[in-house]
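sorry for the late reply, my laptop died twice this morning and i had to redo everyting from scratch. anyway the thing you sent over, i finally got around to it. pasting the sequence first so we're on the same page, its 166 residues, then the predicted structure underneath. double check i copied it right bc i was rushing
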Amino acid sequence: MAKVKKVIIEDEKELRKAVHSDNYIYVILLLVCVFINIEMFSVSPRWITFFDTIPKKVVFIAFQILFVILLFFWVRKKKKIITILLNGEKTKGKITDSVSIRSNSSSTTICVFTYTVHGKEYTVSSKDKYGSKGDTYKIIFETNNPENSIVYEHLKSNVQALISYE
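ok and here's the structure:
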């Protein structure tokens, strides 16, 4: 059974900043969508004349709705990471299964990591480029909800630098 260690985050504000460090991309995309909406529904568009028919407007609005839905799930994922790190403990887990998903141009491997907390076995799945069955990884789980977990090695390096253990 692996040792469980309490995760220590010295600076919560810095952690939030590190986790959300790529927010600017979404803000820029959101501003572009707002600009296009204003232009698209203007009586006399000055910049964009592509949206001159209703079907093109409907397609663009559908893409915007999809963007907002993806943004919602992205924000939810970031909040989950912060919650786990602020209320978490570290243990060791192993890759017990993996599935490669191939398309014409790329390949993604989804690994299943198994870890044990208080005698009960849990799993978490995550993308992993280099791992193979049996490899050991650090798993950080939420103390009050051990099935809510993340793989430490898959966090960005600036987030990893903020984590220490008791």
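The longest helix spans residues 54-86.
thats about all i looked at so far, will dig more tmrw
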